[in-house]
Prior knowledge:
- The protein is of the alpha+beta class and 397 residues long.
- It has three domains: 4-109; 112-132 and 324-396, Phage tail protein beta-alpha-beta fold; 137-320, Jelly Rolls, CATH 2.60.120.
- It contains ten helices and 25 strands.
- The protein has helices spanning 4-15, 21-31, 37-51, 59-65, 70-78, 87-99, 101-109, 317-320, 335-346, 371-379; strands at residues 111-114, 136-137, 140-142, 148-150, 157-162, 165-169, 175-179, 189-194, 198-203, 209-212, 216-226, 229-241, 250-253, 258-261, 265-270, 277-283, 286-290, 293-297, 301-306, 309-314, 327-333, 349-352, 361-366, 385-389, 392-396.
- It has a 19-stranded mixed beta sheet that branches.
- The longest helix has 15 residues, at 37-51.
- The model is unreliable at 52-59, 66-77, 80-112 and 114-128 (pLDDT under 50).
Amino acid sequence: MESSDQLRILFxxxxxxxxxxxxxxxxxxxxxxxxxxDRLKDLIIDVLExxxxxxxxxxxxxxxxxxxxxxxxIQIQETPSTIPDRKNKTLKLWFKIATVAASLVLISxxxxxxxxxxxxxxxxxxxxxQEINPGDFGATLTMANGKKISLASVSKGEIARESGIVxxxxxxxxxxxxxxxxxxxxxxxxxxxxxxxxxxxxxxxDGSRVYLNAAxxxxxxxxxxxxxxxxxKLIGEGYFEVAKDKRHPFIVKTNKQEIEVLGTHFNISSYxxxxxxxxxxxxxxxxxxxxxxxxxxxxxxxxxxSGGKIAIVETDADLAVAWKNNEFVVESEHIEAIMKMxxxxxxxxxxxIGEKTxxxxxxxxxxxxxxxxxxxxxxxxxxxxxxxxxxxxYVSK
Length: 397
C-alpha cells in the first residue's frame, strides 16, 4: 500500500497531468478500494484546498472524486464546518463542486458519446461480449548497433551504454539519456518506436520530453545534435515539451514538413494513413515549412497540412493532447476518425460493412476502458453497430 506522502505526491501529479500511464493506473486502483476512507477523505481535502479554484478547469479532479462513494462525498462536503481555520476557503470550493455533482456521475462511468439525436433506452444495443484490453506503457528502443530493447519488460536503471551515452529507465518508467559530449558519436542513431497498443515517454539528452502515442516512432542521434541543431524525426503522433536552448534550435521532421522551435509545447499528428497532418501549439511559437511554404503558429492554433498547403485555424488545444492525458476526446468527428484511434490503441483491425454513417460524434472516453465498453456507448447513439470477432471489429450503419 502507498504511504500517505506517496499518495499525496501521486495525486498532485495526476491533477497536473504529469502522471505516467503506470502511475495513473496505480492511483485509480487505490481510489476504487473500499478501505481506509478517512485517509482518502483527508487526502482529497488537503490536495483540493491547495488546488483551490483550478479544479473547475481540471477534469482530472472530477474523475478522481467520482471514484469516491456517495457517503464519503457527503462526509467531505460536511468537513469544512468542523475545521474553522480553513472554513471559508474549503466551503467555497465544495459549494462549487456540489453544483457539478451530476457531471461526476458521467465521468465516473469513464466514457460518454453523443450526437444531435436523443437516444431512448430501447435504442441501446449491447456489443457482443468479448473483452479486448486497452493499450499499455511500452515501446522498443533500437540502438545504433541494431540491438533492440523491449522497454516494457526491461528492469529499471541503466539499460544501455553506447558511444558516450548512458540510457536509463526511470522509476516512473520513462526513458532518459545522459551524454558525455567528448565521447558521444553524432552518427549513432537511435529509434524509439511504439506498436499499436503502446505509448511511451522519453527524456532526450537536452532535457526535452517527448510523449509517443501508439503506432509511432521517434528517430534521433544519440547526442541529438546535427550541424548545431537538435534534430528528431517523427512518424505517427508525439507531444513535445522542448527545453529552451537559443544556440541550438529544435527541429522536428515528418514525412511532409519541418517544424522549428526554440522552447515550446506542441503536438504533432503525422500518421501515414491520415490525409491531413496536424500541428497544435500549446505554448511558445513554432515555424512550419512544407514545399517552400512556411507559417508561424501561435498558442491555441492548429496547422493543417494537406496537399502541400498549410491552413491555420483556432482550436481547443486540449483536444489534441487528450491522448497524453489518457483520454480519447473527439469533437464533431466522423466514424472513421474514431475508429482509427481505436485501431491504434486497442491493436485491432476495423472493417466497414455497407454504407458508413455520416453522423458526427463528440465526447470522451478513458483510454483505460476495455474496447467493448467504448463501442457499446458509441453504438447507443443508434448511428453505428459493431461486431467483434477475434481482434477484428466490423462496423455497420
